[in-house]
Amino acid sequence: MRVGIGPAVATVVMRRPAFVAPMLATPTPTLPVGPDWWFEAKWDGIRAVAVLRAGRLTLWTRNRVPVTDRFPELAVLPEPLTGRDAVFDGEVVALDEAGRPDFGLLARGDRGGSGPGAPRRYFAFDLLFWAGDDLMGTPLADRRTLLRSLGLEAGGWRVPAHVEADPAAMRAFVERHALEGVVAKRRDSVYEPGRRSGAWRKWKRTRRQEFVVGGWVPGRGGRAGEPGSLLLGAHDPTGVLRYCGRVGTGFGTAERRRLQAALVGLARPTPPFVDPPHLREARWADPRLVVEVRFSAWTADGRLRHPVYVGRRLDKDPAEVMRELS
Question: Which of 42, 185, 204, 316 is catalytic?
Fold first, then answer.
């Protein structure tokens, strides 16, 4: 904020912030009901804050990593954003052949800046700053009304729809289109940067979450120099990294080689887990690589059942990765 003092009056001009830590949703096993809530699809992509300065875009992940260069087509802005200062919250997604978001396509980078492949889109679902006004203290319903009025449905930008007071309708939509889940938001909620708030709640259609890679087991035969499986962990409420199991399916040869290249520089002689598995062939790694995994359930001893690798998460801080209870 800049305060200018004139001859007889003080004027206040809000400056566009360089970055806003995204507001986070609280996991829930059931969706809330009632007229105070509305419901959106949970998009299977990378959470990104879009900051515009005089119409120039910077995309930031939630852990403040700039990723604009990874998605150059999104820098081609809709006309209403020309020359504007603004901050949006949203999700970068890659669409499959049926038009559904697919995080695996996004994580593998199956599209070049202008080449063929899965189209990428920016789904802007919140407006935090516009035309000199800080909107984070205004109700969500008002922010969304202004967002929709901007006319951003062009190029790579979209404003996703929501359903009011009817979680069953959104859940049915998510099930029908095999989307990741539903996010419930209070209509009157203000934007709470960096906070996991009960005013936003997320329900997932299938069990999936992020894990930290603490090591790997080499493959066999022709894959002896590549990871055959990844050793996964998550932090408990005390901040201790606990072993959660291993995943060895869901990645092909190209992804195995990318993972190997990332893990080489993280090698360490001892396990990072407080309760490491007894695997003689294990190779240990500093817990800095975050991946997303789909699985069927947790076992009684805290291990993953039927895990399947989905992709790397460059937008998540390893220290924030905790086991989700729902």
Answer: 42
